[in-house]
Amino acid sequence: MSRVLGVFLLLSLLALVPSSLLAQDKLVVFGGYSYFRPPVTVTESFVCTLPACPLQPVLPVTVTNHQNLHGWEFSATYRFLPFLGLAADYSGHYGSALSGSASNVHQHTYLFGPEVHLPAPVSPFAHVLFGGTHQTVTSGQLPSTGGYFAIQPTSTTAFATVVGAGIDIKLIPHLWLRPIQLDYLVTKLNSGTQNQPRVSAGLVLHF
Predict the structure, then answer these.
(1) Is residue 91 part of a domain?
(2) The pLDDT of residue 9 is above 50
(3) 187: left (phi over 0), alpha (psi -120 to 50) or beta
(4) What is the pTM of this model?
(5) 181 lies in a domain?
(6) Residues 144, 111: Cα–Cα separation, whole Å
(7) Tens digits of residue pLDDT in 81-104
(8) Residues paired with residue 32 on neighbouring β-strands, in sequence order
(9) Is residue 72 in a domain?
(10) Counted domains in the chain
(11) Are the C-beta atoms of 122 and 86 separated by less than 8 Å?
(12) Which residues neighbour 147 within 8 Å (Cβ) at sequence distance 6 or greater?
């Protein structure tokens, strides 16, 4: 009974929407700048450069720190209903893996899932996406007294999910502005759970 009522309410809402809004473009493509602040885990091994070094080697240590990464985001949404579509999202972010070192981190995320929106010239939207993320840390050195810390390269892939929302503003036919998109991204890297924000902005094309 509840399912029948839900279908009835959905059809009633669609009947209230003007026909000009129902004739929305089916394919929506977004591209733009993206900011990401993930926790980055690096493994450091101390390398002594002094003539007299400890008899026992210094064991590697693991350090986790939050880094400011900059990059891009690209997404495409196929809207098979006036309010509902299926989105595919791909992003890449880049920056330093550890402040003061030459080690870099690259993180790419690929996600898929449903997206709802309000068909209007000022169109808020929200989505829940699922997929994976791949993080690569390059080798580098961090200077220290009596030697340096050598950062070991790593490459990790894990599950990712995101809950987010944003707003699109129509500029001219087929061209829209996305001034902001806020996402809460959860990943499962290095046998742990990471919670981090992602902020994006750019242009949207309707086909």
Answers:
(1) yes
(2) no
(3) beta
(4) 0.82
(5) yes
(6) 40
(7) 989 999 999 999 999 999 888 899
(8) 73, 202
(9) yes
(10) 1
(11) no
(12) 46, 47, 48, 49, 50, 53
On the 0-12 / 13-18 / 19+ scale of CB atoms within 10 A, 199 is: middle
Place of tokens 């591209």: 31
- Residue 16's identity, in one-letter code, is L
The CATH number of whichever domain residue 28 belongs to comes to 2.40.160.20
Q: Which domain holds residue 176?
A: 22-40+66-135+155-206
DSSP state at residue 97: S
Residues 94-144 have pLDDT tens digits of 999 998 888 999 999 999 999 999 999 999 999 999 999 999 999 999 888
Task: Compute the residue count for the chain.
Answer: 207
**Looking at the domain assignment, is residue 150 inside a domain?**
no
Question: Residue 4 in 3-state DSSP?
Answer: helix
Q: How far apart are CA 29 and CA 153, in angstroms?
A: 35
pLDDT tens-digit readout, 21-40: 444 579 999 999 999 999 99
**Can you tell me the distance from the alpha carbon of 16 to that of 119, in angstroms, rounded to the nearest whole number?**
12
